[in-house]
Amino acid sequence: MDDGLLAHARAATGFMPDDEGLLLFRRGVERAPHGPLLEVGSYCGKSAVYLGAAVRAAGAGGVLFGVDHHRGSEENQAGWEHHDASLVDPEVGLMDTLPRFRRTVHDAGLEDVVVAVVGESRTVSAHWRTPLSLLFVDGGHGREPAHADYAGWAPWVMADGLLVVHDVFPDPADGGRPPYEVYLRALAGGAFTEVEALGSMRVLRRTAGSPGDPVG
Ligand SMILES: C[S@@+](CC[C@H](N)C(=O)[O-])C[C@H]1O[C@@H](n2cnc3c(N)ncnc32)[C@H](O)[C@@H]1O
After folding, report:
1. Which secondary-structure segment (H or E) carries 64?
2. Which pTM does this prediction carry?
3. Whose C-alpha in 41, 60, 127, 152 is 20 to 30 A from the C-alpha of 2?
């Protein structure tokens, strides 16, 4: 990964250890020539810089869509473990990570390859019809939003495309269950086959079905 972009990724606010970010970069470089990359859960742009750098490295024509309502997940709200008061819009009293996301992407020089899609994930996925070369799922980590993201987005992964799930913890002592449940659901559905595990990242390749087909 380009040294300058790596420095931007490391400096960005967010939830992405460097080794997992570099996995995103490596897998993004592999998949960007074949179609769009899409992440669910952009927050302040940290994973978007790793994936955007991959699009840049792969050459002309690629794109990363970053879907987020930018109001924060449950654990980002006031009083919760991952709350950052500097990300609250004081006039409306709600989290707003979009300005920080835009600043991160601008400063990294990736505005031409990273497109913010601002909205509720389920609303956007219900209208989405474009096959995805790589889908990175890192949105709401509660049971309901995590499964809704899987059901709404995973069908759009193209044949040989990749589904990457973050925060998969087989041991409940290490973290919440829903991303692990989604990972098991993807394997059980028969459309995906695991190809890599690193930290809490799981990488699955679509080995059956076509975009839009149910994935279990
Ligand atoms: C764990 S953070 C993403 C971290 C980011 N990938 C990084 O590298 O730092 C989860 C993000 O998902 C977003 N999110 C949660 N539920 C959502 C939903 N239902 N629709 C859209 N965005 C959602 C939150 O606003 C938050 O920014």
Report:
1. strand 64-68
2. 0.98
3. 41
pLDDT tens digits, 154-170: 999 999 999 999 999 99
Going from the Cα of 66 to the center of ligand 1, the distance in angstroms, rounded, reads: 10
Q: How far is the CA of 40 from the centre of ligand 1 (A)?
A: 7
> For residue 199, what is the DSSP state?
T
Is 141 a residue of the active site? yes
Q: Kindly give, in sequence order, each residue whose CB lies less than 8 Å from that of residue 164, ignoring residues fewer than 6 positions away.
A: 23, 24, 27, 134, 135, 136, 137, 201, 202, 203, 204
- Through-space distance between the first and last CA atoms of the chain, rounded to whole angstroms: 35
Q: Measured from the CA of 70, which atom of ligand 1 is nearest?
A: 25
- The angle at the Cα of 65, spanning 63 to 68, to the nearest 5 degrees, equals 165
Q: What distance lies between CA 195 and its chain's CA centroid? A: 18
More confident residue, 81 or 205: 205
- C-beta separation of 38 from 135 below 8 A: yes
Residue closest to 204 by CA, chosen among 136, 153, 146, 144: 136
Instruction: Give the model confidence (pLDDT) of 49-107 as tens digits.
Output: 999 999 999 998 999 999 999 999 888 888 888 899 999 999 999 999 999 999 999 99
